[in-house]
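Review session, final week

We close the course with one last complete record, chosen because it touches almost every idea we covered. It is Olfactory receptor 56A4, a protein from Marmota marmota marmota with 313 residues. Go through it on your own first, then we will talk.
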Amino acid sequence: MASSSNDSTALISEFLLICFPNYQSWQHWLSLPLSLLFLLAMGANTTLLIIIWLEASLHEPMYYLLSLLSLLDIVLCLTVIPKVLAIFWFDLRPISFSACFLQMFIMNSFLTMESCTFMVMAYDRYVAICHPLRYPSIITGQFVVRAAVFVIARNALFSLPVPILSARLRYCAGNIIKNCICTNLSVSKLSCDDIIFNRLYQFVAGWTLLGSDLILIVLSYSFILKVVIRIKAEGAVAKALSTCGSHFILILFFSTVLLVLVITNLARERIPPDVPILLNILHHLIPPALNPIVYGVRTKEIKQGIQKLLRRL
């Protein structure tokens, strides 16, 4: 029996991604808004990176952190959306083992990297408002470098076991993934091994990382709100809140889409299976598309940078 299992595993060299198995006929229509969102996300984030790079006045820690967020968004979009569109347009469903597990690793690690970046940005706003005189000595270029290394190292190390555990499973129950992307649960379902530890690790690691970030973000904003309420000077409250308003909106986008995705997965028996699949794709598109636009609309320095860039063109 062991040899036949190994033989069947060796025969499977790739997976087949079946997007929206119950709604195959309208995939081409769905590809239009997805491709427009993808172009918007790539264009907006690339423009933001160029503006921050070219504009000397934006060479500050807050904008370096925003650049890190844009880079994470670009990588997440490129990891997921081109393959989804290739399935919709050209029926290119096959994905190799290595590509599938690489996609799984990037999705898990970069999602938590975004959450961690929001946490560092919340700390930046906390220092700026609660300790303004100490801000230049605390939030330095060196701080941003260390924060970026921490964001990448922490989340990459904690996320790496997820694809490794999945890759070590024996796949003898077919190779059709009922999803547009290689999520851990969608892939591990095809295994004939016990996947309890696989699921448990992702659950514990994911919620430990995202949960700790959320707690620190809430604490930062609690301290900010406490200080803002004490400020008596006219207009000072509005000015203080405007400095972290954009950041707070980005966190709401990220958290809301993620929360809806979690709820639909928990209630998957009552909800059509295609709904969580669509929400998973949108979570890799909506925050990346809206993040740079929110900062662009609400930040005077970035608006000026856009105007200068347009004049150069």
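Two points worth writing down before the exam:
The longest strand covers residues 14-17.
Confidence is low (pLDDT under 50) at residues 1-10.
Good luck, everyone.
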